[in-house]
Amino acid sequence: MIAELHTDGGCRPTNPGHAGIGVVIDFQGGDQHMLGRYLGRSRTNNYAEFAAMRVGVSYAHHLGVSNLYIYSDSKLVVNSMLGEFQLKDHTLQVILDDILKLLREHFDGRWSIIHTKREGNSVADAVCTQAILWGMWNPWVPGIPRPSKPPDAFSCAPALHGSNT
């Protein structure tokens, strides 16, 4: 099975801050799988970007993908995966090593990665934003100060309107 993987990680309202990931897998034929996850407070944007890639590659394998075309709007992630950047942060290096191991084990020679502009990654960005907002507004996550009015769930995620099958 051939699929495209779009990943995004982010944090709000500051960096570091509340972090989340968005993963979108588009199959030939039109099927689409989306996954968002809140990562917690005090995480950096770079951590979230690498975490999104790790989850996305693992999820693609779980769904039975054999050939994977990866798109990310993070130059750091893309260039690190291609061996063009050397990471200084040990935590990010551990995640990168895990990503590359997953790719070797499950997609050996059957994957590629392309840097895309943010506009080309809008659905993954919207899923990521929704995951962060969910975490920030979840009453079961203790100690999170909340504004007086919750945001409109779709105001920052217009790509999620309509059917995504």
List the helices and strands and how they pair.
Blueprint: E1 2-12, E2 17-27, E3 32-43, H1 45-62, E4 67-72, H2 75-81, H3 90-107, E5 111-115, H4 122-137
Parallel strand pairs: 1-4, 4-5
Antiparallel strand pairs: 1-2, 2-3
Helix pairs in contact: 1-3
Order of helices and strands: EEEHEHHEH
Number of strands: 5
Task: Report the mean per-residue pLDDT as an integer.
Answer: 86
Q: List low-confidence stretches.
A: 149-165
Q: What is the spatial order of strands in the main beta sheet?
A: 3-2-1-4-5
Structural Rg: 16 Å
Number of helices: 4
Which fold does the CATH topology refer to? Nucleotidyltransferase, domain 5
Domain count, please report it: 1
Strand content: 25-35%
Largest sheet, strands/sense/barrel: 5 strands, mixed
Compose a concise summary of this entry.
The chain is an alpha/beta fold and 165 residues long. The chain has 4 helices and 5 strands.
Kindly describe this structure:
With 165 residues, this protein is an alpha/beta fold. It has a single domain (2-160), classed as Nucleotidyltransferase, domain 5. It is built from four helices and five strands, in the order βββαβααβα. It has helices at 45-62, 75-81, 90-107, 122-137, and strands at residues 2-12, 17-27, 32-43, 67-72, 111-115. Strands 3-2-1-4-5 form a five-stranded mixed sheet, sandwiched between helices. β1 (2-12) and β2 (17-27) form a beta hairpin. The longest helix is centred in the first third of the chain and has 18 residues, at 45-62.
